[in-house]
Amino acid sequence: MDHDAACLESTVLIRMEPTMAEPGNPTVTWAERMELLKDSAQQRVLNAPMPPAAMDQLIADEKAALLGRFEGSPVRYMDRWWRRNEEGWVALDEAASAQLDLHAERYRAATAAAGAPPGADAELGKMLPAQPEAGAA
Q: Which of 3, 63, 89, 109 could staple 82 via S-S, CB 3.0–4.6 A?
């Protein structure tokens, strides 16, 4: 095979997206399969309690964010809010996380107000609604 033919063949091979067969869905691409695996792994993480030390490390590494500096502060990680209970850190379901997003916006606006005293963070934390129960992610 000459050089030009080899280049053409490799270009065609690169542009063709490989597929894999699955029962009931014979044309799943590798990219789609990887996305399904990613979603599956994320669901496993969201459905299992996270050990406190693991969440502490995520917070220290700035991969997870505390809402505030008050006891019981929820943590935002993997597009969900998490709360701590006797099992560890548990992800709230999508609806509870969306509701807490609204309260978090108000909370952040209140703490960002000019002249907020140093202890305001703890006081404003008491104004958040009761923490919703953790749900299936």
A: 89
